[in-house]
Amino acid sequence: MYQTILVPVDGSKRAEAIFTYVEKLARMNDARAIFLRVEEEPIMLGRDEIIETTKYREDYKARVERATAYLDDLKAAFRGKGIHAVTRLAYGPVVKAILSVAADTGADLIALATHGLGGLARVSYGSVAAGVLQAADVPILLIRSGSDPAVASDRG
């Protein structure tokens, strides 16, 4: 039924609550999982503020390296379970990036957990989920991570 499952993640345990469902669906359908991490532009400068570009570039590079390592770990874990997994790192507004990657990869399901917190922008996956739900033209699997006892300790 599903061939390509797009799984947006933000690195939180709450967002990872979707993994059990993705694993089951991928196995049942012999589907590939695409783990997506979106990096937003974190800087919102006031009118007279000045940014030190060297430090900004170093911080940004470190963020991208952490995101890449996280995605690589997910890919290895799912491949270790016999599931075809790939990763994507995208940049920009989260909802727009998710929809763009879904279209670019031919994803026929977007699977995500609500209420995961992520990124420097502290974007709630609840609002991301709502944005994806309103605009996506493929099926969406949403689960409430707050109802999963395995992530209860991740509540903020």
Describe this protein's structure.
The structure is a single chain. The protein is of the alpha/beta class and 156 residues long. It has a single domain (4-154), classed as HUPs (Rossmann fold), CATH 3.40.50. The protein is 40% helix and 22% strand. The chain is built from four helices and seven strands. The strands form two sheets. It has a five-stranded parallel β-sheet with strand order 3-2-1-4-7, with helices on both faces. A two-stranded antiparallel ribbon has the order 5-6. Strand 2 (32-39), helix 2 (53-80) and strand 3 (85-91) form a beta-alpha-beta unit. Helix 3 crosses helix 4 (125-135). It is globular, with a radius of gyration of 16 Å.
In short:
By secondary structure, the protein is of the alpha/beta class. The chain has helices spanning 19-29, 53-80, 94-105, 125-135, and strands spanning 4-8, 32-39, 85-91, 109-114, 117-118, 123-124, 140-144.
Throw out a few tags for this protein.
single chain, 156 residues, alpha/beta, Rossmann fold, five-stranded parallel sheet, two-stranded antiparallel ribbon, 4 helices, 40% helix, globular, disordered C terminus, Rossmann-like_a/b/a_fold
- Estimated share of beta-strand residues: 15-25%
C-alpha Rg (nearest Å) = 16 Å
Class derived from helix and strand content: alpha/beta
Question: What topology, given as strand order, has the largest sheet?
Answer: 3-2-1-4-7
Number of helices: 4
- How would a textbook summarize the main sheet? 5 strands, parallel
How would you state the average pLDDT, rounded?
A: 84
Family: Belongs to the universal stress protein A family.
Protein name: Universal stress protein
Pfam families: Usp
Domain UspA: 1-144
